[in-house]
Amino acid sequence: MPQRIALLIDGSNFYFKLKDLKLNNQLLFNFLSFSNFLAQPGTCIIRTYYIGAVKTDGTPKMTTLHAAQQKLFKHLQSNRFQYSLGYLLKSGGRFHEKGVDVHIAVDMLTVAYENSVDKIILVSSDTDLIPAVKRVMKLHIDVDYVGFSHMYSTALKQNCTHTKLLTKDDLKPFVVTDKKKS
Fold first, then answer.
1. How do residues 116-133 score in pLDDT, each as one tens digit?
2. Given 51, 66, 83, 141, which residue has the most CB atoms within 10 angstroms?
3. For residue range 88-147, what is the model confidence (pLDDT) as tens digits?
4. How is the chain split into domains, by residue range?
5. How far apart are the C-alpha atoms of 65 and 153, rounded to whole Å?
6. Are 15 and 23 in contact (CB under 8 A)?
7. How far is CA 69 from the centre of its chain?
8. Is CATH 3.40.50.1010 correct for 4-177?
9. CA nearest 97: which of 70, 128, 71?
């Protein structure tokens, strides 16, 4: 029986790492193929993308950002992903994502305590998740850290069961050049 796998992606973290690699148009990213690639030889039974919700305040900028996020949600759903929403807090003229790490940690602990997966693949470099990682591993659930070779978390690498560091070449096959193929 193949391993049951939960793939949890910290959306903001993922977006900015892809942006560093100039691959940041997530509407052209084949998340389903990416999840299958990461899960091999197991079966990805949970696919969740975590992100702060963009709320529109009627300004053109926020309306545009909200519409773009709605397109991303549809794209994720078409790739068999669910999404979990935190929120955005404006402080000092900048937006900061809040609540996303808590959602990821709660979901990690929930699937571990329910024994609904054999492995969690965590695509995030946020070290705030280490206490949840350690607790999940005490419950005999593997936690694989997926980071990016150009900017990874040494602490997550040291605290997870396995580590996979992705390069631009690893990610290129998941960028769809013809929108109809996604």
1. 999 999 999 999 999 999
2. 51
3. 887 887 888 889 999 999 999 999 999 999 999 999 999 999 999 999 999 999 999 999
4. 4-177
5. 29
6. no
7. 15
8. yes
9. 128
